[in-house]
Amino acid sequence: MRSWYRHMDLHEFYNNLDDLVLSILIFIATVYVCNVLRKVQGKLLSMVGLNGFDFRMAAAEMIGTMELGVICFELNFIINDLFGPAVYTIMLFLSLMWQHKRASEFAYYANPSIIFVKHVKSYRAVTLDGHFSSYIFIMFMLVGEMCGAALAYYWVTMVAWKYAYLWTFWKSSNYHMKRYGSSWSSSLRSSPSFGMGIEGGFTFLCYIWPKLIKHKTNFGGDAALLLINAGRALFSGIGQQYTGGYYNPIMATALEYTTGGYSLTTKFQVYWAAPIVSSIVAMFIT
């Protein structure tokens, strides 16, 4: 098991700060781009005659998934590599707190497991907007998330990392520049069966953890939210060393689709089948 804290001397830490600042700038730039997209999405959909509720929700999923995907790229492939799981977990916790506000404000899930669970809870097809069944609605949401995952991938790998040399500060190169154009292996560093256990097991915990905090403790409001996201960040920090700790099929798709080492079938089993099945099981037993 990898050490939670990556030991480095002062000189190495000073050099790595360049990439930390760059990651923060990429976060900020991504948020700005996504805010612009949210402002113009209604007009763009109207221009092409796609005014339905399902199209608006799919667009919201696309933008929200892109935003979350970029954060995951930077945390998994830059921050974790340079600073280790401890710093990764802390920054993920801060990101989760911030993303909770964003998801509530702009009404998106950016996670197929949540969408499937919400559909199964209904126990029947529900017609939305008078035209599309809930099954078709789910497909629209998934297509939106897939598009968002692709946008996150290309935004990071073909824009942010490609032009990282423009953002160097006190040294001539950085880790982002090394990442660009290079292939990387899968985050799955265990057997597929163990990986399925990690992704499925911790997805299960991520589902029941909020319920335990809300119903088994006296915490509520912001205190409960802090505990919930602290637990989720810790779960991801533990799993990150074995599978990447995604617990989110669409984020795993964005980050793992082009990686080497395992077939797409294996990746589907680990990153899609295990989390979705465990989410549905958790829903039925809680």
Give the biggest sheet: none
Number of helices: 10
Q: What is the SS-derived class?
A: mainly alpha
Beta fraction: under 5%
Uncertain regions spanning at least 5 consecutive residues: 123-132
Q: What spatial form do the alpha-carbon principal axes imply?
A: globular
Tally of individual domains:
2
Q: List how many beta strands DSSP finds.
A: 0
Mean residue pLDDT: 86
The helical percent reads: over 70%
Task: Quote the distance from N terminus to C terminus.
Answer: 32 Å
Tell me the radius of gyration.
Answer: 19 Å
- Succession of helices and strands: HHHHHHHHHH
Secondary-structure map:
Layout: H1 10-47, H2 53-83, H3 85-106, H4 112-122, H5 134-160, H6 175-179, H7 192-216, H8 221-240, H9 249-256, H10 264-285
Protein described:
- The longest helix has 38 residues, at 10-47.
- Helix 2 (53-83) packs across helix 5 (134-160) and helix 4 (112-122) packs across helix 10.
- Residues 123-132 have low confidence and may be disordered.
- With 286 residues, the chain is an all-alpha fold.
- It has 2 domains: 10-179, no CATH class; 192-285, no CATH class.
- It contains 10 helices and no strands.
- The two termini are 32 Å apart.
- It is 73% helix and 0% strand.
Q: What is the compact description of this entry?
A:
The chain is mostly helical and 286 residues long. It contains 10 helices and no strands. The chain is globular, with a radius of gyration of 19 Å.
